[in-house]
Design a protein that fits this description.
Blueprint: E1 5-11, H1 19-24, E2 27-34, E3 37-45, H2 46-56, E4 62-66, E5 70-79, E6 87-95, E7 101-110, H3 116-119, E8 123-126, E9 130-135, E10 144-147, E11 157-159, E12 170-171, E13 194-199, H4 201-235
Parallel strand pairs: 1-4, 2-6, 7-10
Antiparallel strand pairs: 1-3, 2-3, 4-5, 5-6, 7-9, 8-13, 9-12, 11-13
Amino acid sequence: MGEKITLTIQKREVRGKKVKQLRKQGLVPGVVYGAGMEPTPIQAEAKEVLRVVTAAGTHSPVMLSGAKKRIAMIKDVEFDLTKHGVVRHVSFHAVKADEPVEADVPVVMVGENESAAKRAGLIVLQSLDKLQVKALPMDLPERLEVDITKLAEAGERVTVRDIVLPAGVEIVEHDDGQAENEESEEKQTMYDLVIATVYEPSALQAANEAAAGDAESADAEQVAVEGEPEAEQKAE
């Protein structure tokens, strides 16, 4: 964990359509809820809310103070679609410091510029950018790093198994009938998921062009199917 992310909140008395007045005053309405507590309407300074939302995302704990001290995770943020960077409402889920929580944490590749693959002109393409982990709130990492410096040739890859997890952090396994490995015919685990793969630029370009061609063909077929009834009517 880096520095603690803090936000001063106030209990909110204004409800319903009247919250428009709060926004005009530079305040953001919100709510704090959690196990064993009644949902509490709150408000906070708009600039501070945006700072906290940007810093914490949905994977870092926020230390709430003011109305009541709590540790909370951001669960939902409503942005103003007509104004960039303006938060209309924020929801916090209060958690306990001694009880593990689950959160989606960003996965970041490190060492790309130092890899033999990069020096050889190959492309390392990331296919997994976040993972769900479980840890105590204050142990949740800001990100998970995977070292790709050892990647050298096309076809090589790194998986979740290559991540060195911080102490007290574990990957959340999902029993969702994941795809079976064609060679071993064994079910893959979360640790077998591919994070990044090395490609030849020419092969990657060919694959992209093929995918684009398939998409165009599908669009053409859809247009043809949609146009059939009209054509039949004209023929009649």
